[in-house]
Amino acid sequence: MKRGVFITLEGSDGCGKTTQTVRLKEKLARKGLKVAHTREPGGTSFAENLRQIILNPRNKISPIAELLLYEASRVQHTQEILLPALRQGKIVLCERYTDATVAYQGYGRKINPRWIEDLNRMATGGLTPDLTILLDIPVEEGLKRARKSGGKRGDRLERENLLFHRRVRRGYVHLARREPQRIKVVSARGTVAEVENKIENVLRSKFPQWF
Ligand SMILES: Nc1ncnc2c1ncn2[C@@H]1O[C@H](COP(=O)(O)OP(=O)(O)OP(=O)(O)O)[C@@H](O)[C@H]1O
Ligand SMILES: [Mg+2]
Description:
Layout: E1 5-10, H1 17-30, E2 35-39, H2 45-55, H3 63-87, E3 91-95, H4 98-108, H5 113-124, E4 131-136, H6 139-150, H7 162-178, E5 183-187, H8 192-206
Parallel strand pairs: 1-3, 1-4, 2-3, 4-5
Adenosine-5'-triphosphate is lined by residues 11, 13-19, 145-146, 148-150, 191-192, 195.
């Protein structure tokens, strides 16, 4: 059924996911590979609308409602974007996926991780990334980058306190320890080109046929 390759990029706010995914897409496309770039929450018009609701600082959203909005967006995104692209044999690069929900809503908001696991499975039908790049950066540095690009006060999640963001980072690191075959940690410190090279090295070792 699935013929393509599913790669996710994860990491805290401002770590460089968009920057690096754009570069990676261009690099692979130059080699003649078919690549799709998408992101969560979003990717479809319904899910992009949900994204606006989720990230709008004016909305007061309880943790469980937030979790369900993310998962609702994930259902549509998986069915309308991820699965069709994978069926077409594409390399799918997706910014954020199920690991983000474990890190943000599980570790960050402290929601029962078993609920999150169940909802993730329900939303995706069990579709799991072939490879996940975790861009790891100290919380303050990431937030500084995010504020530089997205406005001083940040979106609803970026406005959370430092302790929240530290729990998120710790959550990601725990996930990577639990699934070292799938999740590769790449330090997001250093220049854009340095991080890009580190990501390329991970890809080279996993998919040498692309290089
Ligand atoms: N290695 C780097 N060094 C310095 N600045 C960087 C680096 N990588 C990205 N940036 C800058 O940091 C800001 C955030 O980067 P980017 O938007 O790629 O992060 P992101 O992980 O997609 O953030 P978000 O979680 O908010 O979507 C941008 O202004 C970007 O130009
Ligand atoms: Mg981004």
